[in-house]
Amino acid sequence: MLEFKQAMRRRYKNRPYRKKGAGIRDRVIFCLKIMLALSVVSAVSLICIFGYDCLTQSDYFRAETITVEGNQILSEEEVIKETLVKPGDNILSINLSMVRKRLMANTWIAEAEVVRKIPSGIVVRIKEHKPLAVLDLGKEFLLNDHGEIFKEKTTTDPENLPLVKGLKFSDLSLSGARISPSFNSLMTVLKLGMKPESILPNSSITLINVDREIGLTVFAFDKTIKLGFNNYPDKYERLEKVFYHAKNGRDFSDFETVDLNNLSRIVICPAANPAEAPEEYKKEV
Question: Are 238 and 171 in a shared domain?
Answer without folding.
Answer: yes
